[in-house]
Amino acid sequence: MGRSPSFERGLKKGPWTSEEDRKLVAYVEQHGHGSWRSLPIKAGLQRCGKSCRLRWTNYLRPDIKRGKFSLQEEETIIQLHALLGNRWSAIATHLPKRTDNEIKNYWNTNLKKRLTKMGIDPITHKSRTATDTNLSHMTQWENARLEAEARFVRGSTNVVSHFYQRIHCSPPPFMTNNKLAMSSLSLPCLDVLKAWPGITSCKLSDLSGLETPKDQNMPPMVNLIENVEPPSLYKDTTTQDWEISKTSLFNAVESPQDKGIDQNVFEVNDMIFQDDYLTEALTNHLVKDFEDGKSYWSSILDKVGNNSSFSSVF
DNA sequence: AATATCTGCAACCGCCGCACG
DNA sequence: TCGTGCGGCGGTTGCAGATAT
């Protein structure tokens, strides 16, 4: 037999009175909340523990900031929502003194409508005006990046294969290789991906003269799988960041077949943690033309090699 | 001024994962 | 391994105040 619903036990529901608030605050300040289930009786409240916890965490807690959201907070919410979806508690951890409930309400009553008015789908964060069902490679890349980021944040340990299968409806080629499959199961947080913002910030316009394998906006992918010899990744003992060397990168590019990588496939696996949250993604994409890809990467490195965020990696 | 509609948000509900016996 | 209790989370509701007609 289950627990009795609160109304069957004579517990009060609905808006809290100032007297109830005072009792709850006084009790928690003196004793801490302890077990929420037993708190109402000890505090002299005719409420269920769950109601007390909610009232405290969303309203009475002293470290809560109330009032209008700043522009910066709005931007943060939108960016994090694109990254994390409706994971309000996760989003709230990046907005000091704001509760998940408050952020959720603000999203539902303000930001969602505003994005819709701007022609942006509040769920996918994509423009509704993009009528072309064959999205540009750039959009595909960005979507893939966001999806992978979100999935990684959710704690998936097998991001590569899951994501790849969603895109291509088949396992990634390297997953057929036992050694590589094993290594991909425990991908670290790779710092490799600094390369991508380096490119995007400088620079898609600067790269306009480059020839790409398939599309001007689609950088080819490079396989940066752990355990490839020579090691393409190492951990900086000072910063504890994962790094990749330029030499290793080109070794992987020059002779992928020696490393168990399908010659016709470039992959990029990039992730970076910054300011406590994932700002870059693990991304996989198939690029058929290996030779074009190699020359393209060379061109990119020449162009953006001095860019700070890019050169810090290579 | 009266009524209808909209908006914001506190609070509730149901579900889930984890800990524990 | 299973059942139970608890805390936490996201979706939804309902009410009060604001605004429109």
Automatic annotation (TrEMBL):
The keyword Hydrolase does not apply. Pfam families: Myb_DNA-binding. Keywords: DNA-binding, Nucleus, Repeat, Transcription, Transcription regulation. Residues 8-60, 61-111 form the Myb-like domain. It is found in: Nucleus. One of its GO terms (molecular function) is transcription cis-regulatory region binding. GO terms for biological process: regulation of primary metabolic process; response to other organism. SMART domains: SANT. The keyword Repeat applies. Its main location: nucleus. SUPFAM superfamilies: Homeodomain-like (SSF46689). This is Uncharacterized protein. It comes from Lactuca saligna (Willowleaf lettuce). The lineage of its organism: Eukaryota, Viridiplantae, Streptophyta, Embryophyta, Tracheophyta.
